[in-house]
């Protein structure tokens, strides 16, 4: 019963000379929330399109919900949901009409199901509003409802929270986790590092290759071998150039009001402070920081 | 005598669109050398604020001065100090990089003798010099963005207004973009900046550097700014350096990891001292009532063990800007 | 399957009804075209100013002139006395033609070989030839053949040419009303233009908004999507057809002599082509504007080479050959024959076959391309 929901083996897609997806391998289990992180053009969307059977792989294969993603794509599509970053809504239609339409496309005609889906995403009471008048957060919920109306076992979310505010995004992720707890498998593509933090596991894509796939904590501890320090000093420019010359400093970057630096393991706050003071920089504070997925991405990419 | 380093000085700005109060009493002061981040969701009033600052919109109330010039009354002078990059900055895809910049220079009234050397200096600065003859349509997303920045910089503005400049760009490019912004504000951009003498006097010229105001809906972007204003429903609900803002929730965020995550979540939510639980894949972030963190750290692991789960780690972590934003948003509801 | 198709059709209708601006355009355009083409672009002649050089000055010649006067095609504006007068009047634009009645008109009339000469201002060929036809008709009634000199050059008034027999041209349209010619054309143009433009833009709009992406990840089949999206516009196009027919019939007095069923079936055949063109355009275009322009690119030559405005027979042979590749051309022949002549299927079977073949081929091509584009 513990059959993986997605199994991808050496999946490859070329467009002429260009290799959009290059021999990627991964497995996703039922109920997982997996992030697929990478910049635009890194091959995320091509991967999803192959998993939905919309694109034929040049090489390798993918099994989704036990079906071959390409030869049995109808079966896959009937059981998987997809939410695009564009929030595919018809602006002239009301919330209710939008959902009834997409329900009809999936062969669902009972209004009870439509009502339940609206309930699930918290849009009850807004049935007769036209989609064009909804705020970004509500558009997002309606788009999610559309992807959920046929009760899929697997949900693909393509950049789901672009342009919505942090509170709406919070609520959205609460919904996603609720779905996952009910056994729905979720795959989220994103190019936002902080979005990926929400996921149980994160795959990092760049130039068509899957550089790593693991839990955010494991990625951070595995890829960032040293320590992160937040350095508050004055003047910042001088501190920046001084830190570049300190032995054991792997990366230095200015972030707004302070400096973030990654050092080799074993270097103490004291060492950093001393080096800066020796260079004539006034140090206010050196505190340990947390590695972020952005650090991971930059380490893997460079 | 007015502070001549105060490049953006906006007081009590208000603007209404029909029944919507888009901006409701916003004051923003940005000095030379600062990067100010206006952070908020879609519809919070960021874009309207920026458009009020650059004089593209008339405020219902309030005043804006840019480098000492009143945007409403001395529009010409104020605009000559402004570089503005709108959300969907318009590039001509079928013109080359150089032709694009030339166009933007010429529409702003620069003579042909002026723009060419300046264009090249700016392209050098943003790292597009070797692509000067490439069609804009064939640039990558990041390069387009740099071209947008370059065309905003061609008149050597002292005030740069950027509306969501790095939406949808890959992290490596974004890193580069930020390095550009930081070097822009920390060094006098390009020498021999011919500025009309500002009413503030000579001190402004001595400071020589630039003020940047940008808007963003993303917290990791906000964290890079020198100062941040959280915007919500047309108001700035909090302002400060990222560290000051994070300091509002100091010692109030705990990270909990363990299994099963469902149980952990339920128990954490049941705790009186826990205000908010956020799931992060393999771990939870808890926001704790002021001063209650030690108590929670003591009792929660044993409760989890008692419930049949295991807690691998429970520790205090530095708050993120997003924690603060959500906290403040909840407060402003009440 | 029926449910899926039904929900697309329903959705499409809601969108059409909610989009007031497009709805207005769909309903108003046919009326506008009718008015423009029925009135403004008329090639009818009325009150053409005419000069008369009556050298006969006989009762017979006066009778002929009375006939000209009463026909209300012409207004006899000037009495001409010399060839110089003729030149002055025509060059000055004060008359469009001068009728010259020779001195021996009465004598020849008695011998049944009377001829008069009409000098026309050839600078407007269409008006000229219609005027000549009218003059010849009037002449016929008086056993007088009217010969013409249509050159822009004057002075060869005596050039006598055999009269042109115009009877076939006016057989079904004795009053030479150009609305008879234009209104069937308007029906054809509306079926052709509105259907293809609406089809192309409605599909491209789904692509622009990203909704098509959402649809292709559902179990929907591409033919269901196509049929579901197109059917509402087929209905709208037919509504427009009826609108034009009704206004044409009641207002412009166009007869509907043929079988209504046959009119609808052949109109459906034309729709196959125009919907196919719209669908093809939608596979090429990425924005609604591109779609619109792409359709227009095929529409313009179609309209000009279909015989809508200009008779095909008058075109150079190359263009006549090209016109064979234009479905609208066949439809115009069919619809004019059906409305005005009231013929049966037998008379138009070649055109109907051609229209069917074009429809099936274009639609087939479009369907194949559309499928490819979705994948």
Plain-language structure description:
The complex is a heterotrimer of chains A (302), B (334) and C (375). Chain A has 11 helices and 14 strands. Chain A is an alpha/beta fold and 302 residues long. Chain B has 334 residues and is α/β, with parallel strands linked by helices. Chain B has helices spanning 46-53, 75-80, 97-107, 112-126, 141-153, 171-186, 203-207, 219-222, 242-247, 261-270, 293-306, 321-333, and strands at residues 6-17, 20-31, 35-39, 61-66, 69-70, 82-85, 159-163, 211-216, 227-232, 235-240, 253-259, 274-280, 283-288, 310-316. In chain B, a hairpin with a 2-residue loop joins β1 (6-17) and β2. In chain B, α3 (97-107) crosses α4 (112-126), α3 packs parallel to α5 and α4 (112-126) crosses α5. By secondary structure, chain C is an alpha/beta fold. In chain C, 65% of the residues lie in helices and 8% in strands. The chains are: A alpha/beta (302), B alpha/beta (334), C alpha/beta (375). Chains in contact: A-B, A-C. Chains A and B meet through α6, β12 and α11 of A and α6, β12 and α12 of B.
Would you spell out the secondary-structure blueprint of this structure?
The complex is a heterotrimer of chains A (302), B (334) and C (375).
Chain A: E1 6-15, E2 18-28, E3 33-37, H1 44-51, E4 59-64, E5 67-68, H2 73-79, E6 80-83, H3 95-105, H4 111-120, H5 136-148, E7 154-158, H6 166-181, E8 185-190, H7 193-196, E9 201-206, E10 209-214, H8 216-223, E11 227-234, H9 236-244, E12 249-255, E13 258-263, H10 269-278, E14 282-289, H11 293-301
Parallel strand pairs in A: 3-8, 3-9, 6-7, 7-8
Antiparallel strand pairs in A: 1-2, 1-4, 4-5, 9-10, 11-13, 11-14, 12-13
Chain B: E1 6-17, E2 20-31, E3 35-39, H1 46-53, E4 61-66, E5 69-70, H2 75-80, E6 82-85, H3 97-107, H4 112-126, H5 141-153, E7 159-163, H6 171-186, H7 203-207, E8 211-216, H8 219-222, E9 227-232, E10 235-240, H9 242-247, E11 253-259, H10 261-270, E12 274-280, E13 283-288, H11 293-306, E14 310-316, H12 321-333
Helix pairs in contact in B: 3-4, 3-5, 4-5
Chain C: H1 2-18, H2 20-40, E1 48-54, H3 59-70, E2 74-79, H4 83-91, E3 97-101, H5 105-110, E4 114-120, H6 125-141, E5 144-149, H7 167-170, H8 178-209, H9 211-216, H10 222-250, H11 260-284, H12 288-304, H13 317-323, H14 327-341, H15 349-374
Parallel strand pairs in C: 1-2, 1-3, 4-5
Antiparallel strand pairs in C: 3-4
Helix pairs in contact in C: 1-10, 2-8, 2-10, 8-10, 8-11, 8-12, 8-14, 10-11, 11-12, 11-14, 11-15, 14-15
